[in-house]
């Protein structure tokens, strides 16, 4: 069996579903370059719980967890199957690593999950399992969270952390054509950190990144990055998927951590 890399994706606004821009084709091409996964396991900041929950639904619903957007977004369905088997294995791994984790048999896929995965697997023919973000998660525990689930990559599961590389919606500028300098500086820092395999910088971004609090007034959309990094093989290649910066402040950059390779026997 092939060991899969892990992926951090910036899922942007819900309109990313219908406005792929630069980032959508990059995600599609990345998926096509990888072996077909047994399933996708994805962490999204739009499902935050007290302890970790893992969706065990065999047919997860498409959740339209947003308001005030064009009607066409609410008509989109992403009917990918779930994988109760992979979900059960994820719970087993998380509990073994000391996380309180339990099954949620009814949870569907929120837009942080189905929007980017829809660009990658438009036929909805790859099972998707969503895992929640525990409300106490920080940079260090996000790394540990990813490392706890890393064995799934040896079992043919593509692990994805879905967030946004910058996410200050207070500064949203719909007609902006130029990126705010602070967002550019944060993206430059993140590229350097991931390419340099600087786990300490990634997990302590508030101390090491420029404009960290401005780029992320809350940590939820950042933490999928150290999560995805933690799930990757240490020291592997990092591929930058430069999706640009939208609305002056929303970085759509994603990272592929590692190459597909033969899993250890």
From TrEMBL:
Keywords: Dioxygenase, Metal-binding, Oxidoreductase, Zinc
Keyword S-adenosyl-L-methionine: no
Cofactor: Zn(2+)
GO molecular function: ferrous iron binding; oxidoreductase activity, acting on single donors with incorporation of molecular oxygen, incorporation of two atoms of oxygen; zinc ion binding
Residues of the Extradiol ring-cleavage dioxygenase class III enzyme subunit B domain: 31-238
Family label: Belongs to the DODA-type extradiol aromatic ring-opening dioxygenase family.
Protein's name in the database: Dioxygenase
Organism: Caenimonas aquaedulcis
């Amino acid at each position: 069996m092939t060991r899969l890399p892990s992926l951090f994706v910036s899922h942007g606004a819900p309109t990313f579903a219908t406005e792929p821009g630069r980032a959508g084709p990059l995600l599609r091409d990345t998926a096509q370059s990888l072996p077909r996964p047994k399933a996708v396991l994805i962490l999204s900041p739009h499902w935050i719980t007290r302890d970790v929950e893992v969706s065990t639904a065999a047919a997860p619903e498409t959740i339209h967890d947003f308001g005030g957007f064009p009607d066409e977004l609410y008509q989109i369905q992403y009917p990918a199957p779930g994988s109760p088997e992979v979900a059960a294995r994820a719970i087993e791994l998380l509990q073994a690593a000391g996380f309180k984790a339990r099954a949620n048999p009814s949870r569907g896929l929120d837009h942080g999950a189905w929007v980017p995965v829809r660009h990658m697997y438009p036929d909805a023919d790859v099972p998707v399992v969503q895992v929640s973000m525990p409300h106490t998660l920080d940079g260090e525990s996000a790394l540990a969270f990813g490392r706890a689930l890393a064995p799934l990559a040896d079992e043919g599961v593509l692990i994805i952390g879905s967030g946004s590389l910058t996410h200050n919606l207070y500064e949203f500028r719909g007609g902006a054509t130029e990126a705010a300098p602070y967002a550019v500086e944060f993206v430059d820092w993140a590229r350097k950190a991931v390419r340099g395999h600087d786990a300490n910088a990634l997990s302590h971004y508030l101390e090491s990144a420029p404009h960290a609090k401005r780029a992320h007034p809350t940590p939820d959309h950042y933490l999928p990055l150290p999560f995805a990094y933690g799930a990757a093989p240490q020291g592997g290649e990092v591929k930058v998927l430069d999706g640009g910066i939208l609305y002056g402040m929303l970085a759509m950059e994603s990272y592929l951590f590692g190459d597909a390779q033969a899993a250890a026997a």
